[in-house]
Amino acid sequence: MIKIKDLHKSYHMGSNSLHVLKGINFEVEEGELVSIMGSSGSGKSTLLNILGMLDEADEGQYILDNVPIKNLNEKIAAKYRNEFLGFIFQSFNLINYKSALDNVSMPLYYKGIKRKERTERAMHYLEKVGLANWSHHLPSELSGGQKQRVAIARALASDPKVLLADEPTGALDTKTSYEVMDLIQGINDEGKTILVVTHEDDIAHMTKRIVNLKDGLIIDDSKVEQVRASAHV
Ligand code: ADP
Ligand code: MG
Fold first, then answer.
1. Which has the least CB within 10 A, 2, 80, 112, 228?
2. Cα(204) to centroid(ligand 2), Å
3. 167 within 8 A of 197, measured Cβ to Cβ
């Protein structure tokens, strides 16, 4: 599903440059649940943003579902991004003045899906994340865990091939974090390919494979025995 080869990325600020990714190699098969770990500043978000086509590498190959991602014009890049990828962020990134339902259905508008189907699909995914009764509430009326559930429903609604989550539990307490991981595990059980960036060991062990980043390189990449979040909530 994902193949990256010898990926490099630097940031340039005036005459200074910071080499953040120094030759990253890995592959992710369909259906995997992978965590990317590393201390703050190790390049996790940089890597996830490149995988999510929000940013481009300086060097190296990235192949997503057999499509080489390189030098795409913005229109085609946007098309692939919409078709292939769903995003979940630490800070939820919901639109504050829109209801949960509208937050989930809005990306479908940009895919040209008609209103009735948008609403049906959005309700379906809100039900899936346990928020059917909260569809008309604003984000400000929801708890952190509920907001992240809305964001997960929004990411799922366009049925992406890969879900990318950047510290999805970073703003949540432990119990709520495990509830969100329980949901993510359930989505992966149904076959969705998911990458989760985290710096928390317990969260990483709720995935099936841990990729460890340090100083711009992968220093370890191991399959792990998955801890079920439901055993801890
Ligand atoms: P992580 O997500 O692991 O905390 P990041 O990928 O966000 O790490 O950042 C890696 C390094 O790159 C950090 O030192 C950070 O300050 C720097 N960095 C990230 N984004 C930018 C940017 N847009 N411009 C300059 N430096 C950046
Ligand atoms: Mg980060």
1. 112
2. 15
3. yes
- Does residue 233 carry a pLDDT above 80? no
Residue 205 included in any domain: yes
Single pTM value for the model: 0.95
**Is residue 45 lining ligand 1, measured as CB closer than 6 Å?**
yes
With 0-12 CB in 10 A as exposed, 13-18 as middle and 19+ as buried, what is 126? Answer: buried
165: CA distance to ligand 1 center in Å? 17
Give the DSSP per-residue string, 112-157.
T--HHHHHHHHHHHHHHTT-GGGTT--GGGS-HHHHHHHHHHHHHH
Give, for ligand 1, the residue of 9, 19, 20, 199 to mutate: max count of ligand atoms closer than 8 Å to Cβ: 20
Q: What is the pLDDT of residues 32-82, one digit of tens each?
A: 999 999 999 999 999 999 999 999 999 999 999 999 998 888 888 888 998
140: containing domain? 29-56+74-231
Is residue 20 in contact with ligand 1, taking CB distance under 6 Å? Answer: yes
